[in-house]
Design brief:
Elements: E1 2-6, H1 11-19, E2 26-31, H2 34-44, E3 50-55, H3 61-71, E4 76-79, H4 94-122, E5 125-130, H5 143-162, E6 168-175, H6 181-184, H7 196-208, E7 213-216, H8 218-229, H9 232-241
Parallel strand pairs: 1-2, 1-4, 2-3, 4-5, 5-6, 6-7
Helix pairs in contact: 1-7, 3-4, 4-5
Bound molecules: NADP nicotinamide-adenine-dinucleotide phosphate.
């Protein structure tokens, strides 16, 4: 299987590359930090059929699209590259807001604009989005991140309906907290945080089972779903308390 993983230089993406490193797989790993990608390539090259690195900033859309064109068709793309801008109650500077949307939302479409025609013509392909449980509840200190991931949910849902007769499988993954560079920056206690290995094992399992929507850990997902069922005034109280 030929697999493109974005954001493969650390955290979830790096571990996905490790867990997909088998003799049947051709990996294409994309991120900005070349040194990290080269190190990972060295580690995995004897385990895989082939491994290619793409050193690209996904917010440089023109370059991103021309790099994606060079790889031709793939069997699966895991749209994992993502950023948060920390937790703050200050007004978000416009440039930070834009950057976050460029990485978390727009880059996904820039990539898919190139890959979708291949998927449609081969009547086959898997698109995996890495959204977040944060998309289901918008905290005042992280509303930009939450809203970007909610946009990912809407996009993933729409694209699944749109191409359901074209052999394209769309999988939307909503993880809770998983240890990574992104969560290492958080200064609060993260409930039910999973190790990178365990978190990615669950993601890979959901991909293998073609789950259209997979939110985990289950108890955390249930808790957020329960809060979302409450009347607004109670939700407001809970969010203020948190
Ligand atoms: N960890 C969690 O608890 C958690 C929970 C829910 C969802 N997620 C989502 O999971 C995904 C992976 O996050 P992570 O936790 O593994 O964080 P991470 O360790 O910070 O990894 C983020 C990856 O995205 C890449 N990236 C960021 N900006 C980029 C850009 N402009 N161009 C190209 N690549 C870029 C980074 O590579 P370079 O810096 O080398 O470019 C890195 O490989 C994100 O979408 C995140 O929102 C994480």
């Amino acid at each position: 299987m030929k697999i493109l993983i974005t954001g493969a230089s650390s955290g979830i993406g790096e571990e996905l590359a490790r867990q997909y490193a088998t003799k049947n797989n051709e990996l294409i790993l994309l991120a900005r930090r070349e040194d990290r990608l080269l190190k990972l390539k060295k580690e995995l090259k004897s385990l895989v059929k082939s491994i290619t690195i793409l050193v690209v900033d996904v917010t440089e859309f023109e370059n991103l699209q021309s790099q994606i064109r060079t790889i031709g068709s793939v069997d699966m793309v895991i749209l994992n590259a993502g950023i948060s801008i920390g937790h703050s109650l200050e007004i978000t500077p416009f440039e930070d807001f834009k950057k976050l949307y460029d990485v978390n939302v727009l880059a996904n479409h820039a990539i898919l604009e190139i890959l979708l025609p291949h998927f449609i013509s081969q009547q086959n392909g898997k698109i995996v989005f890495i959204s977040s449980l944060a998309s289901l509840i918008s905290m005042p200190s992280s509303m930009v991140y939450s809203s970007s991931k909610r946009a990912v949910n809407a996009y993933a849902e729409g694209i699944r309906y749109k191409y359901k007769n074209d052999g394209i499988k769309v999988i939307n993954i909503l993880p809770g907290f998983i240890k990574s560079e992104l969560t290492d920056k958080n200064k609060f206690t993260m409930p039910m945080i999973l190790s990178t290995k365990d978190g990615v094992k669950r993601i890979k399992n959901a991909i293998e089972k073609d789950k259209k929507f997979f939110a985990f850990p289950f108890r955390f997902y249930m808790l957020i779903s329960f809060i979302n069922l409450l009347p607004q005034f109670l939700r407001d109280k809970i969010v203020s308390f948190i």
